[in-house]
Write a structure and sequence with these properties.
Blueprint (H helix, E strand, L loop, with lengths): L3 H10 L6 E7 L2 E6 L21 E7 L16 H14 L6 E6 L1 H12 L4 E7 L6 H14 L6 H11 L1 H14 L12 H13 L3 H7 L4 E6 L8 H9 L3 E6 L7 H13 L5
Helix pairs in contact: 2-3
C-alpha cells in the first residue's frame, strides 16, 4: 500500500515506482517475466522453474497496480508508465547483461514498450498472446454497433467494454473464478479497480505497439493460440513480413499459458541461451 505522502512526492516528481520482485532464482542469462492485466506473477507457474540445464536467472515481477507492487491512483497506467517501473526495477537488480523479456498479454505490450524506450536493457523479446490492435479496429466496431443496433462484431471490444461498464459483475466474476481454481492468477478487486480500468483503456485499447514492433531490431518471438478469441492474428503474419527480426509461432491454445503453452515458451527461451 502506497502512503499518501509517498504518492504525493512521486506524483509531483513523476518518479517511476519500483515493482515487487516475486521470484529471483538461478544464475546466468537473466530472463524477466511480465504478466498480463488483472493478474500477477503466478501467470508463470507453468513456465517456472526453467529447465535446469539452462544458464538462466529467472525473475518475475508484479506489474504496477497489481499483485504486491505499488498501486497508486495518480498514474495513467499507460504503456510508458508500466515500462518506466519495469526499467527502474531492472536497473535496481544491477544486472551485468541485457535481459530476455518474456511477456504475456498486456505484459507483451509493456515488453515492447520497454524495448522501444530502453533498448540497452533488452536482449530479446518473447511475446505471448500479445493483443495487437489499431485505433481503426475499435472505431469500426463502434460504427458497426451504432449503425446496426446489434451486438458488436469484434468480440474483444465487446468484452473490454462490458468489463469496464459492469464493475460489480466483473469483480464478482473474478472472485468466483478465484474460488473455483486454486491455480488462478487473477488479481482484480476493489483495491486495484482503478489500475485495471486505466490499464485496459490506456495500455491495451490505446496503444502504438504495431508500429513499435515494425521498427525494433532486437530478435522477437511472438507466440499465440489459434483458439484465442481476444487476438487478431492478421497482424502477426504482416509483422513478420515487415520486420525480419520477428518470428511467429502459432499453437493450439487459448489466451492463458497452460502446460503445453509453457513448453513452447521454454523451448524458445532455450534457443537464446547457451547450455551449460
Amino acid at each position: 500500500m502506497v502512503s499518501k505522502f509517498t504518492s504525493f512526492v512521486y506524483e509531483k516528481l513523476k518518479l517511476p515506482y519500483a515493482l515487487h520482485i516475486a521470484s529471483d532464482e538461478g544464475e546466468g542469462q537473466p530472463v524477466i517475466f511480465l504478466h498480463g492485466i488483472a493478474s500477477d506473477s503466478r501467470t508463470w507457474n507453468t513456465v517456472l522453474p526453467l529447465s535446469p540445464e539452462l544458464r538462466v536467472r529467472a525473475i518475475t515481477f508484479d506489474l504496477l497496480g497489481f499483485g504486491k507492487s505499488p498501486n497508486p491512483d495518480w498514474p495513467d497506467y499507460n504503456l510508458q508508465d508500466h515500462a518506466k517501473s519495469v526499467a527502474r526495477t531492472i536497473r535496481g537488480l544491477r544486472l551485468k547483461q541485457k535481459s530476455i523479456i518474456v511477456g504475456h498479454s498486456m505484459g507483451s505490450l509493456i515488453a515492447t514498450q520497454l524495448a522501444t524506450s530502453y533498448p540497452k536493457l533488452v536482449k530479446q523479446l518473447v511475446l505471448c498472446s500479445i493483443p495487437l490492435y489499431s485505433g481503426d479496429d475499435f472505431d469500426s466496431s463502434i460504427d458497426a454497433y451504432k449503425g446496426s443496433g446489434r451486438q458488436l462484431n469484434n468480440i474483444y471490444f465487446s468484452v473490454y467494454e462490458k468489463l469496464i461498464q459492469k464493475r460489480d459483475f466483473t469483480l464478482n466474476g473474478a472472485k468466483q473464478l478465484e474460488s473455483l481454481s486454486k491455480s488462478s492468477d487473477l488479481d482484480l478487486s476493489d483495491a486495484n479497480w482503478g489500475s485495471f480500468t486505466k490499464s485496459l483503456k490506456n495500455a491495451i485499447i490505446e496503444q502504438d505497439t504495431l508500429h513499435q514492433l515494425e521498427k525494433l531490431t532486437a530478435p522477437i518471438d511472438i507466440i499465440y493460440g489459434t483458439f484465442d478469441l481476444l487476438l487478431l492474428s492478421k497482424y502477426y503474419s504482416a509483422l513478420a513480413t515487415v520486420n525480419k527480426n520477428i518470428h511467429v509461432t502459432s499453437i493450439p491454445a487459448t489466451h492463458s499459458i497452460n502446460i503445453s503453452y509453457a513448453k513452447v515458451v521454454k523451448r524458445i527461451i532455450s534457443s537464446y541461451v547457451e547450455p551449460q
